[in-house]
Amino acid sequence: MHSALLRLSSALLALSFTTTIHAQKRLVLIDQDGSGPGGSNQMAMMVLLQSPQVEVLGITMVTGNAWRDEETAHTLRMLELIGRSHVPVAKGAVFPLVRTQEATRLETAVLGQVSWLGAWGGGPTTLVDANGVVAGAKPDHSVINPNAHGPYEIPPLPEGAPMTKAIDEDAVHFLIRQVHAHPHEVTIYAAGPLTNIALALSIDAQFAELTKGIVIMGGSLNPETTDPEFAESPRHEFNFWFDPEAAHIVLRAAWPRIDLTTVDISIKARFTQAMLDAISKSKNPAAQYIAKWSQERYYLWDELAAAAWLDPSIITREKVVRMDVDILHGPESGNTLTWTEQLRPEIPLQKVHAQLDLDLPKFEKMFVELMSASAR
């Protein structure tokens, strides 16, 4: 009898411990422009999906680096390949709030080209690092892309078509419903244009204040680089530029906290061949997905935003500023605007924790370990 009670007590203690651990998981909603296969967008989602600290309540898709429907297909297939197909995926905005492809084409003919047009852009261009070594490929608006397609077309996927489908609920209402279901517990991780988030704020006045805060990959202050994309336009960044009105709405909302991974810090973290080689040694599904499909050796924009949320000690320097986005239709449209406390305008602007520097070895180690781990 004593032995049976002891076993029962141990079982209840273990169940209580497991329940406590589960209850302590950090809740996150991922809003992403999930181009693929592989690449920064997919690997960033995998950082959060692979973390034992995190419960991903769902993924919402927005047009940005690619069109929404193609992104959705790549994301569903990634989830299948890494064993996480139970995570719901919802389709969001196909187009920005105001900016259009045709208006942008007309503007750039007069005001000058931009370095990256995302879903509206072209084919690949070779990247060469400071030592003249080919570093990978990045799409270039100036090259006609023979694989370009319309917003609702899904081209054949190299990794195979997904068997699963997106949920019927649209992204915006899914976001709102999840935040209300878990008040003050959910962080919004937004690593693409902010269209879905702006629409959620416009529909639900409580949306921002009911979260734990928002993590954004976006904006640029003064990146120290010879990369012509940013050296000549230090305040330009694609996510803010693609839908500046959305970024304007999001940055003015009453979030408990805003953490921003800027161009300034992102360009200090590249996906290197050494990192890929280390990840490829693992036979786990996430690692094998990356080994096969993540061919770009480029900046780890979105992955860094996700990792810094998991472990803030990765960030070694930040600047707290009041921030907005230029929404006047001219050559500075979409540029990041910032003010110090002393010079801030009287309009309501939120404090933004803009990340500027990082512990690179710590980040790289964390990323490799997460991508090499077994499916949870």
What does this structure look like?
It contains 14 helices and eleven strands. Helices cover 37% and strands 18% of the residues. α5 packs across α6 (195-203), α11 crosses α12 and α11 runs parallel beside α14 (360-372). 43% of the residues are buried. The strands form two sheets. Strands 3-2-1-6-7-8-11-9-10 form a nine-stranded mixed sheet, with helices on both faces. The longest helix is centred in the N-terminal third of the chain and has 22 residues, at 2-23. It is an alpha/beta fold and 376 residues long.
Question: Strand order within the widest sheet?
Answer: 3-2-1-6-7-8-11-9-10
- The helix/strand order is HEHEHEHEEHEHEHHHEHHHHEEEH
What's the pLDDT, averaged over the residues?
Answer: 88
The tally of helices reads 14
Structure classification? alpha/beta
**Measured distance between first and last alpha carbons:** 37 Å
What's the overall geometry? globular
> Spans with pLDDT under 50 lasting ≥5 residues?
8-22, 123-146
- Report the biggest beta sheet as strand number plus sense, adding barrel if it closes: 9 strands, mixed
In percent, how much strand structure appears in the residues?
15-25%
Q: Compute the gyration radius: what is it?
A: 21 Å
Strand segment count: 11
What helical percentage do the residues reach?
25-40%
